[in-house]
Write a structure and sequence with these properties.
This protein has about 350 residues and is an alpha/beta fold. It folds into four domains: about 1-55, no CATH class; about 60-115, no CATH class; about 140-265, 5'-nuclease (Rossmann fold, 3-Layer(aba) Sandwich), CATH 3.40.50; about 275-335, OB fold (Dihydrolipoamide Acetyltransferase, E2P), CATH 2.40.50. It contains twelve helices and ten strands. The protein has helices at about 1-25, 30, 35-55, 60-80, 90-115, 145-150, 150-155, 170-180, 185-200, 220-230, 240-250, 255-265, and strands at about 140, 165-170, 210, 235-240, 255, 275-280, 290, 295-300, 310-320, 325-335. Helix 1 (about 1-25) runs antiparallel to helix 3, helix 4 runs antiparallel to helix 5 (about 90-115) and helix 8 (about 170-180) packs across helix 9 (about 185-200). It is elongated and about 105 Å long. The chain starts with a helix and ends with a strand.
Amino acid sequence: MSKSLWTIRLLFLGLCTFGGFAVSEKFANELHGGAWGLLIGFGLGGLMIGIDEMLKGFSLRAFSAVTFGLLLGSCVAWLIDTSQLFEMTSENIRWVIRLWLFLGFGYIGMVLAMRSNKEDFSLIIPYVRFASQNKPENPLVLDTSAIIDGRIVELIDARFIEGMIVVPRFVLNELQFVSDSADATKRERGRRGLEILNRIQRNTRYEVKIHEADFPEEQQVDAKLIRLTKALNGKLFTTDFNLAKVAEIQAVPCVNIAEIAMKLKPVVLTGDMMQLKIVREGKDRGQGIGYASDGTMVVVNHAQALMGHQVRVQVTSVLQTGAGIIIFAELRQEIEAAA
């Protein structure tokens, strides 16, 4: 991309130099020869390339915003100028006032437009929305916990969700901050989140957008997430129970991935056979504790002596508690010790 860009720049510089020479030939008396024309054309071309290099990273969206802000500021300046507030001033003073009006309001309009995001323009043009015609307008906002958790990738890859994936800039900054933490556990979680995000971006079936809205008046990331989701008319994905409840109170659509996982846990019925590893002693005498594939604790009678072994058990009862499900089982067949 950079090589092609410099090819275009060199071609443009050559055309400017040739154009300067052509102009000097037409106005030979004023420019005193073609050398001056070559120099002026080369200088103007170089100046434009220098301005282009200074504006590196200045996107088409930013240019459109600046143009709109300049137009809006100029309209305000023109309204003030034609309001006859300065009718009694002399022509010279009025010229200076007019100059500062247009410069000042033009600058303020451009700055405000650059600081605004797409949703802010709906206040000015409330019934016009610019959207892609080929992709569904269904923003799915991801928070830090959902990205680090990683199960969102499986939902995306399996096409269980449809829409545009939105990752706020402040969430990306939080991931980078956590990945640079001095704490090894936090650093590992942050790096996992960045890897998950890279995997999401590699999925070509979905559009992934890094949203620049920040809401500086809000101090908490959770409050920013709720405001952004509401502004985009989207859906928030998280594994944070408290954030999901706050979003529900504020009528913001929210999906708790951890809750989905709980709902989709396999149903265990009395009489079902299971195979698991006994990892520790139980509370009562002779009991052994193991865990099902989904992490559910299984209490096995007469299995205390089989710690470290894979065993086959039969479910005798299922107890629902406030912390989750506990399965009680009886030993049916011993399997040889796990490696």
